[in-house]
TrEMBL record:
GO MF: N-acetyltransferase activity
Alphabetized InterPro entries for the sequence: Acyl_CoA_acyltransferase, GNAT_dom, NSI-like
UniProt domain N-acetyltransferase: residue ranges: 51-180
Superkingdom field: Eukaryota
Protein name: N-acetyltransferase domain-containing protein
Keywords recorded for this protein, A-Z: Acyltransferase, Plastid, Transferase
Lineage: Eukaryota, Rhodophyta, Florideophyceae, Rhodymeniophycidae, Ceramiales
Gene from which the chain derives: ycf52
GO cellular component terms, semicolon-separated: cytoplasm
Amino acid sequence: MTFWKSFFNNNNKEQYSYYTPDKHLNKKEILLIKNLYNKGSIVDIYLSISNNINLYELEQLCDSVGWVRRPIKKIKIALENSFLIACIFSYHKSKKTLIGFARATSDKSFNATIWDVVIHPEFQGKGLGKILMNQIIQQLRYYDISTITLFADPQVIKFYNHLGFIMDPDGVKGMFWYPL
């Protein structure tokens, strides 16, 4: 039970303090970084908590990290059924480019699972993945969701550990069913 108790500890409420969520959040973008130097260009980086996303741009972002392509029709359904969607965009000379993405599903009361966290390789190592995850967590905590889970490939476990995610010390294991 030790593992689950850690999610109900409210001493960390101020840990994620990048912005204060409000009911109009999905109608604006929040400037995260002004004048970031990236590969010979100066770009501005913005965060958007919104379900208004171009599916083909998302597909290109996922392609950039080598993810297996999924049918656009199914991606659209997954996004429509997500509780929260966060995107990071770069702006260069009035051109907006999707460079980061994450989403969460939830029962809207106790539990949420974070899915599909991705940062374009050109922007990795600049702290954007951490910012994206902290914003997702902050939003979920704003809705008083106390159990936040995710699935992680072995090569990114260390990244999530640095954000406070832990392997379940009580030995609770997820189970999966796949069609034959």
